[in-house]
Amino acid sequence: MRFEMKQRILFLVPYPVGAAPSQRFRFEQYFDLLKQQGFEIEVQSFLDDATWQILYKPGNALGKVMGIVKGFLRRCIVLFRLGGFHKVFIHREVAPVGPPVFEWLIAKVWGKKYIYDFDDAVWLPNTSTENAMAAKLKWHSKTAFICRWAFRCSCGNDFLAAYARQFNSNVVVNPTTIDLEHYHNQLKNQSDSPLAIGWTGTHSTMKYLDAMVSVLQELEREIDFSFVVISNKPPEFELKNLQFVQWSKETEVEDLLRFHVGIMPLTDDDWSRGKCGFKALQYMSLGIPAIVSPVGVNVKIVDDGVNGFICTHQAEWKKAIFDLLANAELRQAFSKEAVAKIKRSFSVASNTANFVALFDDKSLS
Question: What is the set of domains in the chain, with CATH numbers?
Answer without folding.
Answer: 8-177+348-359 (3.40.50.2000), 196-345 (3.40.50.2000)
